[in-house]
Amino acid sequence: MRALPYENYIFDLYGTLVDIHTDEDKPEAWAALARFYSYYGAVYTPDELQTAYNRLTQERTANCRGLRRDSHEAFPEIEIEEVFLALFTEKGANVSKDLAVHAGQFFRAMTTEYLRLYDGTLEMLRMLRERGAKLYLLSNAQAIFTAYEMRALGLDKVFDAVYLSSSCGCKKPDLRFFELPLKEHHLDPARSIMTGNDAACDIAGAKAAGLATLYVRSNISPKEPLPDADFVMLAMDMAQMGALLSGEAQP
Fold first, then answer.
1. Quick one: 62 and 97 in the same domain?
2. Nearest to 53, CA basis, from 35, 76, 75
3. Which of 11, 45, 103, 212 gets the most CB atoms within 10 Å of its CB?
4. DSSP classification of residue 245
5. Are strands 112-117 and 134-139 parallel, antiparallel or unpaired?
6. What is the pLDDT of residues 133-167, one digit of tens each?
7. Does residue 3 form part of some domain?
8. Cα-based distances in Å from 183 to 169, 176, 180, 205
9. Mean pLDDT for the stretch of residues 242-246
């Protein structure tokens, strides 16, 4: 079996390894969340709660610069639990941060239509691991959601290190975000490849950091022109992705 063409494999999560659909405008989700808040003395109507949530997130992201909002995370560069905590304190409810985290997770569960691995994801990652690859995750995501979703999907022990934008204070395509794993793990960009489904955030950002790139157009990729990536997949196919990343197939 031939040696892998790279030492370090960096992956995006949502739309690349994980298929997800969320809807934060569901009236029933805001009604359920308002009921949850009322249990602890923070009484809102559903519309009032949604308006307050939008205001607080906008206030906290006013000085954050990003290329676009992600379909699965509206505000990935802030710690969203601070918003859920502020929703309690604005109504005079004195609660712990742990309860704010649980409120956020409850809302996430209510607004998630589906969450699943793309077929063959774990097999592809295990193949790379068994052949000696180092695996890293670099995702525009909220830690209070994503860390638990990864556990539910069996991804929590797959990676050598995980970088989530909410914990790092910046998001793709910011060069600082890409440089975190490179610097902290002394990775050689020339021996590293980024795989993602977003031409601007994943591919352009990775190229600026000196990484090789694999772009996959998945069902939740932004509608945009194909990027100038080293490898381009026009549809999700984990067997093909594994073959390209392992050097067993030509682009």
1. yes
2. 75
3. 11
4. H
5. unpaired
6. 999 999 999 999 999 999 999 999 999 999 999 99
7. no
8. 16, 10, 5, 16
9. 98
